[in-house]
Amino acid sequence: MRTRGRLLGRSPSVLASNRDRFDPLADAGKPGHGPQRSIEGWILLVSGVKEDAEEEDLYNAFSEFGHVKDLHFNLERRTGYGKGYAFIEYESCEEAEIAIRAMNGSQLLTKTIYVDWAFSRGPIQKLTSTRPLRRRSRTPPRRLAALTC
Amino acid sequence: MATGGAGEDGASGEFYLRYYVGHKGKFGHEFLEFEFRPDGKLRYANNSNYKNDTMIRKEVFVSPSVLREARRIIQESEIMKEDDNNWPEPDRVGRQELEIVMGNEHISFTTSKIGSLVDVQTSKDPEGLRIFYYLVQDLKCFVFSLINLHFKIKPIQS
Question: Which residues of chain B are within 8 Å of residue A77 when distances are taken between CB atoms?
């Protein structure tokens, strides 16, 4: 590892000190895999968005799958063009899921976009250390389905 | 980067990002800080004693796609090639810290607050500092969207 920079242990950082407790989301009591619901809905990340796309292009494309409650299409500070990503909020998990299935890998203004959940219920699992997931108790399939959305 | 690692920097490998901006003054320690951990945990802390005296501390797991997007923003900025040797030292007005681990590179930069591009132009390393100046704004923008959408709170600019 090559390290560069002047910062040498005199940081006022609160995160690095690790003393404070952080507030997780209210309903974070369901750890595991899969998407995490946000306060008011389900958030998707759209990446690969063309730099000269406009908010309206995204709004129109994603309105096909449900009511788009919120949309952040952030601009690059230096150029004023799109930074290449957007966040989309849907009310229901179903709408978000349909949008992912339909739009992930599709073309928006001649460029391939990728659509995925923005938040997860748990940490990212390293692909190298995947042990087959063993269910500790037999959960009826119907309940599992309910957990995904 | 001529060696084999160049391609791996994109999607896999080690990744850590932390940004801090703040100062200690009349209203105590006022700051804004966030970090992305390799397992996807996004932590966010914001304290402004001027408006209210409670510190906001939030954490949430982001998806691998969100981490990948953060990496992309960093990679495209080419900040990993810079050095903070000639940047303004932190002062009474404040300090910024940017720590990134990506691939086998680790940067740990610190400088003063940058008010505007004028501060960048008149510095000893305008090219490097400009990259830092814009990257920090783009990263803040990215994180503010995540925090705002997930928790429905508005970050306070430090």
Answer: 134, 137-138, 141
Show the domains of chain B with their CATH numbers: 15-151 (3.30.1560.10)
- Do the chains contact at B134 and A89, CB–CB below 8 Å? no
HSE, CB side, 13 Å, CA atoms: give it for residue B75.
17
- ipTM comes to 0.89
What token pair was written down for B35? 């970090």
Of B47, B97, B145, the CB nearest to A72: B145
Q: Which residue shows structure tokens 């909020």? A: A89
CB contact under 8 A, B65 and A118: yes
Q: Which CATH architecture has domain A22-120?
A: 2-Layer Sandwich (3.30)
* Residues B107 and B100: beta-carbon distance below 8 Å: yes
Whether the model pTM is above 0.90: no
Cross-chain residue pair B146–A124, CB shorter than 8 Å: no
Which of B39, B97, B150 minimises the CB distance to A7?
Answer: B97
pLDDT at residue B96 tops 60: yes
pLDDT at residue A27 above 70?
Answer: no
Q: Find the distance separating the first CA and the last CA of chain A, reported in whole Å.
A: 41
Can you give the pLDDT at residue A137? 58
Residue A107: strand pairing partners: A112
Give the per-residue pLDDT at B8. Answer: 42
Nearest to A36 among B34, B61, B138 (CB): B61
